[in-house]
Design goal:
- With 126 residues, the chain is of the alpha+beta class.
- It is globular and about 45 Å long.
Length: 126
C-alpha cells in the first residue's frame, strides 16, 4: 500500500476532528471503526462513535488535534502533537476550562478510511 494514502487519510481525519462536524468525521470511519480512548476503553462501530463524538463536542466544543510529527508504516500512522479544548465548568464554557496536553494517536487505515483510532494522552488534565 502506498504510504501517502494512509497519511492523507489521517491528515483529513484530523481536519474533520478540528472542524467539529461529526457527520463528515464519520464518513472517514469504517463501519466497524474502533476508537480507543486515553484510558484504554474501546468503542466499536461507526454509529456508536457518531453518538460518542456528538457527546464529546457538547462537553468540549472547541476540541482540536495538532499533529506535529507523523510516522507511517504500511497502513499504520503514528501522530505526535497536542490536543486542546475548553471543558465546561459548572455547565458553562469559560477560559479557566481551557487545556492543552501532549498527546499521541495511532491510526490504522483500511481502504482509505480510519479503521482504528487510538488516543494516548494524560487524560486527568483534560
Amino acid at each position: 500500500m502506498d504510504s501517502a494514502v494512509p497519511m492523507e487519510t489521517v491528515v483529513e481525519f484530523i481536519k474533520r476532528i478540528n472542524a467539529g462536524n461529526v457527520d463528515k468525521l464519520c464518513e472517514l470511519m469504517t463501519e466497524d471503526h474502533v476508537f480507543q480512548d486515553a484510558l484504554g476503553k474501546r468503542f466499536i462501530g461507526r454509529e456508536t462513535l457518531r453518538g460518542g463524538w456528538k457527546m464529546y463536542y457538547e462537553m468540549v466544543s472547541d476540541y482540536k488535534v495538532r499533529g506535529e510529527q507523523f510516522f507511517v508504516d504500511k497502513n499504520v500512522v503514528a501522530v505526535f502533537g497536542t490536543a486542546s479544548g475548553t471543558s465546561k465548568r459548572d455547565g458553562k464554557f469559560s477560559s479557566d476550562g481551557f487545556w492543552e496536553i501532549p498527546a499521541a494517536w495511532k491510526a490504522i487505515v483500511r481502504d482509505g478510511r480510519i479503521a482504528e483510532w487510538c488516543v494516548y494522552a494524560e487524560s486527568s488534565r483534560a
